[in-house]
């Protein structure tokens, strides 16, 4: 049998000699020549049955567990276990896998549970003529060899004593096994009778169980009908009670089962009432949720309408703000133009704009009054009044009640007001419309010639 890569079954349990006599190794040499195959012969005793995962290993003397094997080979199962040839077996170890040192080894038969069933005498792997060429050079080596031989003899004697004890133990175990076999035969007969009785009782129980199942199915069907026919529940319950009384009189063993069924019926009635009450509560809850949902939808619609109105108002305010901003920018540009124009006209007259006194317009005159400190009055009082963005009149829209500047509210009126403004000559007190700025400038320039 060729060796495989699969590891053999081993055990970490310490050495136990009680099973070593079940497999006996035959024709074991004291030493084997290195480089050659080794055939191991062994005999199976009548009380040992080999199994598929049994194996024979080579162990170094002094091993403690079956995990300490050096190499191993799977055993071959005999075809006929009871034949004489089946008891005499052999297995061959290839030379490549054998140890190369001169330590003492032994064969051990290990079953598939990792238990040693037999062990051989120790042997070595060394040449045949090694004893002839062995030369003892020192007295210390001789003493060491003698001590080693003494230990081996002692160990051999221990193994022999152990073998004798194991053989005696094996005989006792065989006698006990024979006794156990007789007891087993008796127990088998008793077991057979019990099995027959159990079969009869089982058939009886199966018949009763079938009847109980049929009755249980019948009761289950009636319980399902109770959920639909609530008005007839009391009458059916009375019928079931009478049937249970009859069953109690006929068979006392069925009393507990029928009582259990009646409790289940009562529980079903209670559960049905609870479910109805719970259903009513659920219907009330659903109605309340529907009302709350309608109120929420109504409130959501109101909020949506308010949000739409606020969005429209915000857009209108944004538009008004943009218009006011553009108007402010336009007025600031006009104010800058008027200031430059005023400075240019004063430069024609040889006057300084900063040296001229200024009279703030009063609220009654609207900025049209004249500064008494000026000889000819202030010809640009109307222009300055129109260019001041802070003096613009504020008007309210009659529709949305929003505030607007006067010139935004009615731009046509602003244009008419600008036309009514006059430019007065500072020399001859002649007035010119505000729209005839160029003529006014030419008139003032003619006074300087």
Main attributes?
single chain; 449 residues; alpha+beta; four-stranded antiparallel β-sheet; three-stranded antiparallel β-sheet; 9 helices; 13 strands
Quaternary state reads: single chain
Category from helices, strands and their pairing: alpha+beta
Radius of gyration: 64 Å
Major sheet size, sense and barrel closure: 4 strands, antiparallel
Along the chain, the helix and strand elements come as EEEEEHEEEEHHHHHEEHHEEH
Unreliable stretches covering 5 or more consecutive residues: 130-136, 358-377, 381-393
Q: State the helicity in percent bands.
A: 40-55%
**Cα distance, first to last residue?**
144 Å
Question: Beta-strand percentage?
Answer: 5-15%
What is the topological layout?
Blueprint: E1 23-26, E2 31-32, E3 38-44, E4 55-60, E5 69-74, H1 84-87, E6 88-93, E7 105-110, E8 116-119, E9 124-125, H2 130-133, H3 139-228, H4 233-250, H5 255-349, H6 381-387, E10 394-396, E11 403-405, H7 406-409, H8 411-420, E12 422-424, E13 431-433, H9 437-447
Parallel strand pairs: 2-9
Antiparallel strand pairs: 1-3, 3-6, 4-5, 4-7, 7-8, 10-11, 12-13
Helix pairs in contact: 4-5, 5-6
